[in-house]
């Protein structure tokens, strides 16, 4: 898994208030009901995020991350991957994700993300929606840029490039790649090859490799990786601000 049970998302400077939060139930295009977590800011900034978690689904870390985004002005939805095989409900540390992970179909994840986007835009008309994913979710986030969801951009932390490559020619939104220099899940050669394919396809992307940082460095509770986490957070805010203006 990406984050330990002690991991915490970075804090927000000068945080705003969260107007509402909690678990919700969404319905995918194929009729599957799945659990999501929603956090709505008191003062929205015109940008929203669909958060694609790691292999654990709607785990407490990602619920806390949705709150951090809402404190920064972003309506946020964390989607759970496992409605089709594990049913509804949040995922705690006892959740046995392995058998359900093996049954994931990328196009079904995209359908679930479409439902999350529809929820955000229905609740926040005119919002520019971005996807933000971690590990497994990072790859799915990059892939969603080619799924026809009307995203303003797609962000991935230490993602799995192979998940996006079948959608490469369809990518129509800019990507942000936030990569760990010491990633144990994906090699630097694989990340470099992915960037080469994006270059060859003429796709717009930005990237940052945090040299020496491990997979799952985005942990504001870690003294060792606190500064890197803060830098990555600033890059997310800057990327979304610039590209929200592009589609406004």
Note down, in words, how this protein is organized.
The chain is an alpha/beta fold and 248 residues long. The chain has one domain: Rossmann fold (3-Layer(aba) Sandwich). 33% of the residues lie in helices and 24% in strands. Helix 5 links the parallel strand 5 (128-134) and strand 6 (153-157). The longest helix is centred in the last third of the chain and has 22 residues, at 226-247. The radius of gyration is 16 Å and the shape is globular. The mean pLDDT is 93.
What's a concise summary of this model?
The chain is α/β, with parallel strands linked by helices. It has helices at residues 60-71, 83-86, 98-101, 106-123, 136-144, 188-200, 226-247; strands at residues 18-27, 33-41, 47-52, 76-79, 128-134, 153-157, 175-182, 205-214. The chain contains 7 helices and 8 strands; from the N terminus they run E-E-E-H-E-H-H-H-E-H-E-E-H-E-H.
Could you list some keywords that capture this structure?
24% strand; single chain; Dienelactn_hydro; alpha/beta; eight-stranded mixed beta sheet; 7 helices; 33% helix; 248 residues; Rossmann fold
CATH class: Alpha Beta
Order of helices and strands: EEEHEHHHEHEEHEH
Distance between the termini: 37 Å
Structural class: alpha/beta
Poorly predicted residue ranges: none
User: What's the CATH H-level superfamily name?
Assistant: Alpha/Beta hydrolase fold, catalytic domain
Number of helices: 7
Helix share of residues?
Answer: 25-40%
Range of strand content: 15-25%
Spatial order of the strands forming the largest sheet: 1-2-4-3-5-6-7-8
* Backbone shape: globular
